[in-house]
Amino acid sequence: MKRKASDSEEELDYLERGIKKLKRIFEGLPEPAFNLEDYMMLYTILYNIKSQPTYPVNEDPKQLYNKYKQVLEDYMPSKVLPSLREKHDEYDLLRELLKSWANHKFLVKFLSLVFLQLQAQGAYIP
């Protein structure tokens, strides 16, 4: 079955919303946790992207990997550093650093699992 452009646009929009949701969770903003259905939808979208050569982003296979990489690169300077700079007490600074490190590790793990299809299909070269 051939995918319609609107289907792929909706899936890419869902993928973008999923990444934004994850970032909002880390920022401590009110956001419901990911459930199994959310995770499976993200994984399925990435599978669809890599398995269908007519998918719009397949013109540049590294486009999604670059998006994944950008999320990780932006997280530290935009969220972690400002929150650390606000702390003046050593205890508060250490607590914030530990929280940020735990969030970063989870972000890397979560995105790595979701983007596993990119790795399996050889879409990125470390």
UniProtKB/TrEMBL annotation:
- GO terms classed as biological process: ubiquitin-dependent protein catabolic process
Residue span(s) of domain Cullin N-terminal: 35-118
The protein's matches in Pfam families, at most eight in alphabetical order, are given as: Cullin
Which InterPro entries does the entry mention? Cullin, Cullin_N, Cullin_repeat-like_dom_sf
Regarding protein family, the annotation reads: Belongs to the cullin family.
> Which PANTHER family does UniProt cross-reference here?
CULLIN
Protein's name in the database:
Cullin N-terminal domain-containing protein
- Its source organism is Citrus unshiu (Satsuma mandarin)
